[in-house]
């Protein structure tokens, strides 16, 4: 078939074209990239230039550049590579870890402890800070290294026409895409990745996939334009950039050739391409994530407590006991006792462990550790349709005759057309629609081998039909022409009266609105001949019917959607496809699309109105990248924790706007660099695995915070009360330090626990107000147990205030503190039955170890060195009674709390 070609000579110039928009450099002059860009990508209101004008502006021609010219331009413009992330150094990672609010609070406490000469507390605290930073830095370094291994160039080589000297013939060479420069003439073939932004000079049946740029799943027909077209302002409803993507003469880096081939001139490379422009570095700045908001809220709650505690201790002791600054170390120890100093270590360990298990078991890479918490907190997941809910291929739904009734004849002749078009036109690969038709015919055992192929007119984006000429068995001297293609194009070639044509068009429109894609099929017979068949023979056809196709559903999507619904995650579909197509796919998967919101309605809503509408809408159609980002931002404004799954440049704004950006491993380079989580493949089931892991890790962190903060608050209240009631310090600073070390060692088990199954049912969010209510209630209960212990000690020791009595008091309270902490770890752990059938194994071991230390340490020589003494047997009997009552109170309070929480 002859190629359609753009004029390359003076005769093709439009005399009415605006000459001011064209830059014609002198021969051999270096091209002005800015001027060339204005010509190739004109502003709204400008007319699009012709191919000749583009070639002139680039100081190039249909035969390509000279090698000398290409070398000069490569030096001037740089290599054709995308902007890449710079690797983060280890020192930078370590210092960045210090910005974590909990780590910063702990660092400040360590420095304050050192300032008051509490060297033991200062040393332990600063060691914990260093360990936490090292753990986080190491895990993020591992994630970045894994992501770097996934990097791949958008294309590796390109077929370029270059000349050695002006009189030499052009020679086609395979060159690395890095060496492409503006003005290079390249050839495109099926399967090629477009290596730069280009303007078509010639093309034959060329279609390209632009899903990475626009989100449209279907290939787009491309062909050269020989005359200036209408201004950009009237090209598309979505603005200048979207208008560029719809222009048939332009192809962009990041797209790929689906069928056909052509020749094009490179107009932009490297950072000047639309692919690179879509990923502006300023867009990398994302607002605070769910983890950031939660951590900051809890941190400031703790900071207020810690700033208030030391002055209260000092003032109370000064006013009631006449003690002065000698109580400052004790006041600092009380503040440290309130602080969950193991929190940075446990948070980092729990998240790093979850991330490692995800990478090992599911191939999911978590690049930013807090993103694992955000995965667990997701309550809205925004996805595209293609590749997530549906596969990027069609399947035949049914075959209909002209009356709209089921009839296999249209499918039969469509399969004959597809088979012989593929064989006789020497196409490199069948079109996706042809593959679907042939697969359906094979399933129905259609007999196609009885026909002999004579000729074929392959699909052309201008004609929008394909025709096969065959010989039917027993029909000597007759050729049968079978034509299939776009409904309007086939109907205008059929011998139909106008009412019938209108009726069939209306029927096709109704089917299309229902989410189906229609191919019209027609045929006619001609006397056999040896003369070649042309498009002029596609006239007077007899209409046979329609072949209706739909998007093939992703096999795992239905189960994954059900699993996400059970997890309390609402799935919202944001797509550039037609409303009817996406609504049908959702219904087929069991996801109620409700009222589909189109881009026109989104544009008409204010940000506040969109936030309200987005919360109750499931499907958004005909969305541009800007629409997707605005919808995600609106959902966050409405208080939802959002995740966005994308894989193309068009998804970058929405990925930046979401709490967490997710992409598959085969996504474009810049999408992988932007994403917080990289999946092994674009599969909702993999996201369910990641959400499960995030909730397990977040559940452990939440359990640790609840237990530790409530226990610490109870101890602080008891210390303040004891300091006011007793003539001596209720616990020595060294004893507070050892007690905290024991707590810290036991609490490390939280990072390795497997929390209860109910943790997986709902998003796990660390809400400061919820924590404050929990720790206040259970902290007061813990303080009550401590005060009861004081009474027990007073009774068992007969209220002695001697030196021996002080040592016994310190021993008794030390033992009680460790035992109550062990009880709290076991009884306040969320739920009873762990996910996966195990029930808190690490915590049981840690609680037993804590109990043993609490009972035995005062009896050892180390206890004597710390100022503790042996306690009378009566104390242990009375303590057992207090602990039994405390355990009963904990269970009752937890049951009441869980009932109230479940109702809310």
UniProtKB/TrEMBL annotation:
<dbReference type="InterPro" id="IPR004014">
    <property type="entry name" value="ATPase_P-typ_cation-transptr_N"/>
</dbReference>
<feature type="transmembrane region" description="Helical">
    <location>
        <begin position="771"/>
        <end position="798"/>
    </location>
</feature>
<comment type="function">
    <text>Mediates magnesium influx to the cytosol.</text>
</comment>
<feature type="transmembrane region" description="Helical">
    <location>
        <begin position="874"/>
        <end position="893"/>
    </location>
</feature>
<keyword id="KW-1278">Translocase</keyword>
<dbReference type="InterPro" id="IPR036412">
    <property type="entry name" value="HAD-like_sf"/>
</dbReference>
<keyword id="KW-0547">Nucleotide-binding</keyword>
<dbReference type="InterPro" id="IPR008250">
    <property type="entry name" value="ATPase_P-typ_transduc_dom_A_sf"/>
</dbReference>
<keyword id="KW-0460">Magnesium</keyword>
<keyword id="KW-1133">Transmembrane helix</keyword>
<dbReference type="InterPro" id="IPR059000">
    <property type="entry name" value="ATPase_P-type_domA"/>
</dbReference>
<dbReference type="InterPro" id="IPR006068">
    <property type="entry name" value="ATPase_P-typ_cation-transptr_C"/>
</dbReference>
<dbReference type="InterPro" id="IPR023214">
    <property type="entry name" value="HAD_sf"/>
</dbReference>
<dbReference type="Pfam" id="PF00122">
    <property type="entry name" value="E1-E2_ATPase"/>
</dbReference>
<keyword id="KW-0997">Cell inner membrane</keyword>
<dbReference type="InterPro" id="IPR023299">
    <property type="entry name" value="ATPase_P-typ_cyto_dom_N"/>
</dbReference>
<dbReference type="InterPro" id="IPR044492">
    <property type="entry name" value="P_typ_ATPase_HD_dom"/>
</dbReference>
<feature type="transmembrane region" description="Helical">
    <location>
        <begin position="843"/>
        <end position="868"/>
    </location>
</feature>
<feature type="domain" description="Cation-transporting P-type ATPase N-terminal">
    <location>
        <begin position="48"/>
        <end position="118"/>
    </location>
</feature>
<dbReference type="Pfam" id="PF00702">
    <property type="entry name" value="Hydrolase"/>
</dbReference>
<keyword id="KW-0812">Transmembrane</keyword>
<dbReference type="InterPro" id="IPR018303">
    <property type="entry name" value="ATPase_P-typ_P_site"/>
</dbReference>
<dbReference type="InterPro" id="IPR006415">
    <property type="entry name" value="P-type_ATPase_IIIB"/>
</dbReference>
<protein>
    <recommendedName>
        <fullName>Magnesium-transporting ATPase, P-type 1</fullName>
        <ecNumber>7.2.2.14</ecNumber>
    </recommendedName>
</protein>
<keyword id="KW-0472">Membrane</keyword>
<dbReference type="Pfam" id="PF00689">
    <property type="entry name" value="Cation_ATPase_C"/>
</dbReference>
<dbReference type="InterPro" id="IPR001757">
    <property type="entry name" value="P_typ_ATPase"/>
</dbReference>
<dbReference type="Pfam" id="PF00690">
    <property type="entry name" value="Cation_ATPase_N"/>
</dbReference>
<comment type="similarity">
    <text>Belongs to the cation transport ATPase (P-type) (TC 3.A.3) family. Type IIIB subfamily.</text>
</comment>
<keyword id="KW-0067">ATP-binding</keyword>
<dbReference type="InterPro" id="IPR023298">
    <property type="entry name" value="ATPase_P-typ_TM_dom_sf"/>
</dbReference>
<keyword id="KW-0597">Phosphoprotein</keyword>
<keyword id="KW-1003">Cell membrane</keyword>
């Amino acid at each position: 078939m002859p190629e359609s070609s753009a004029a390359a000579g003076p005769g093709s110039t439009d005399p009415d074209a605006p000459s001011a928009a064209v830059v014609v450099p002198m021969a051999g002059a270096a091209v002005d990239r800015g001027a060339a860009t204005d010509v190739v990508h004109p502003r709204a209101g400008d007319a699009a230039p012709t191919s000749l004008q583009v070639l002139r502006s680039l100081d190039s021609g249909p035969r390509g550049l000279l090698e000398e010219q290409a070398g000069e331009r490569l030096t001037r413009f740089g290599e054709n590579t995308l902007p890449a992330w710079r690797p983060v150094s280890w020192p930078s990672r370590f210092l960045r870890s210090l910005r974590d609010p909990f780590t910063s609070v702990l660092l400040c406490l360590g420095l304050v402890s050192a300032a008051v000469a509490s060297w033991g507390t200062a040393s332990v605290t600063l060691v914990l800070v260093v360990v936490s930073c090292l753990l986080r830095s190491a895990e993020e370094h591992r994630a970045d290294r894994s992501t770097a291994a996934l990097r791949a160039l958008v294309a590796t080589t390109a077929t370029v026409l270059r000349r050695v000297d002006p009189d030499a013939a052009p020679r086609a060479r395979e060159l690395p895409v890095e060496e492409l420069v503006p003005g290079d003439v390249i050839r495109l073939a099926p399967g090629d990745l477009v290596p730069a932004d280009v303007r078509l000079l010639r093309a034959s049946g060329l279609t390209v996939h632009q899903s990475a740029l626009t989100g449209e799943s279907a290939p787009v027909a491309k062909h050269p334009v020989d005359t200036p077209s209408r201004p950009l302002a009237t090209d598309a409803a979505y603005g200048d950039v979207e208008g560029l993507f719809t222009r048939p003469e332009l192809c962009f880096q990041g797209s790929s050739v689906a069928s056909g081939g052509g020749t094009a001139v490179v107009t932009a490379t490297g950072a000047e391409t639309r692919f690179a422009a879509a990923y502006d570095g300023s867009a990398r700045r994302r607002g605070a994530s769910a983890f950031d908001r939660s951590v900051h809220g809890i941190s400031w709650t703790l900071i207020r407590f810690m700033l208030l505690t030391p002055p209260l201790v000092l003032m109370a002791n000064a006013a009631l006991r006449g003690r002065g600054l000698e109580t400052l170390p004790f006041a600092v120890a009380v503040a440290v006792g309130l602080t969950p100093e193991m929190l940075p270590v446990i948070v980092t360990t729990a998240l790093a462990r979850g991330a490692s298990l995800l990478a090992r078991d599911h191939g999911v890479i978590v690049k930013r550790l807090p993103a694992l918490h955000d995965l667990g907190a997701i309550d809205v997941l925004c996805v595209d349709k293609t590749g997530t809910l549906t596969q990027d291929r069609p399947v035949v739904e049914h075959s209909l005759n002209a009356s709209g009734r089921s009839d296999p004849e249209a499918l039969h002749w469509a399969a004959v057309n597809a088979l012989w078009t593929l064989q006789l036109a020497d196409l490199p690969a069948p079109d996706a629609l042809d593959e679907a038709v042939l697969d359906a015919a094979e399933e129905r055992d259609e007999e196609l081998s009885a026909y002999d192929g004579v000729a074929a007119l392959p699909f052309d984006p201008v004609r929008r039909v394909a025709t096969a000429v065959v010989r039917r068995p027993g029909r000597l001297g007759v050729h049968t022409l079978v034509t299939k293609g776009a409904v309007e194009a086939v109907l205008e070639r059929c011998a139909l009266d106008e009412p019938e044509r209108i009726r069939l068009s209306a029927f096709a429109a109704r089917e299309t609105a229902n989410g189906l894609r229609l191919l019209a099929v027609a045929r006619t017979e001609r006397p056999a001949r040896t003369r070649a068949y042309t498009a002029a023979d596609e006239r007077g056809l007899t209409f046979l019917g329609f072949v209706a196709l739909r998007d093939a559903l992703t096999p795992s999507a239905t189960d994954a959607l059900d699993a996400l619904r059970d997890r309390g995650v609402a799935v919202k579909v944001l797509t550039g496809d037609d409303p009817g197509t996406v609504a049908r796919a959702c219904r087929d998967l069991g996801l109620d699309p409700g009222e589909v919101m189109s881009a026109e309605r989104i544009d008409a809503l204010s940000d506040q109105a969109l936030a309200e509408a987005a919360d109750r809408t499931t499907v958004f159609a005909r969305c541009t990248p800007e629409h997707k980002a605005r919808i995600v931002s609106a959902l966050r404004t409405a208080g939802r924790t959002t995740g966005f799954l994308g894989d193309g440049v068009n998804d970058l704004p929405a990925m930046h706007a979401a709490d967490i950006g997710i992409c598959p491993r085969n996504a474009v380079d810049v999408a992988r660099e932007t994403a917080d989580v990289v999946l092994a493949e674009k599969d909702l089931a993999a996201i369910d695995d990641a959400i499960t892991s995030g909730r397990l890790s977040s559940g452990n962190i939440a359990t640790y915070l609840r237990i530790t903060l409530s226990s610490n608050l109870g101890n602080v209240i008891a210390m303040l009360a004891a300091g006011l009631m007793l003539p001596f310090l209720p616990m020595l600073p060294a004893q507070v330090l050892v007690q905290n070390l024991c707590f810290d060692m036991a609490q490390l088990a939280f990072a390795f626990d497997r929390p209860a199954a109910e943790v997986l049912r709902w998003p796990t969010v660390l809400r400061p107000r919820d924590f404050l209510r929990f720790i206040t209630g259970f902290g007061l209960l813990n303080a009550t147990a401590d005060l009861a212990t004081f009474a027990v000690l007073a009774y068992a020791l007969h209220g002695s205030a001697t030196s021996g009595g002080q040592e016994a008091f310190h021993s008794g309270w030390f033992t009680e503190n460790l035992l109550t902490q062990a009880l709290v770890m076991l009884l306040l752990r969320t739920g009873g039955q762990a996910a996966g059938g195990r029930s808190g194994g690490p915590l049981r071991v840690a609680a037993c170890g804590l109990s043993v230390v609490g009972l035995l340490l005062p009896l050892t020589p180390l206890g004597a060195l710390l100022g503790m003494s042996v306690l009378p047997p009566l104390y242990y009997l009375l303590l057992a009674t207090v602990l039994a009552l405390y355990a009963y109170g904990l269970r009752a309070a937890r049951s009441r709390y869980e009932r109230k929480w479940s109702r809310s």
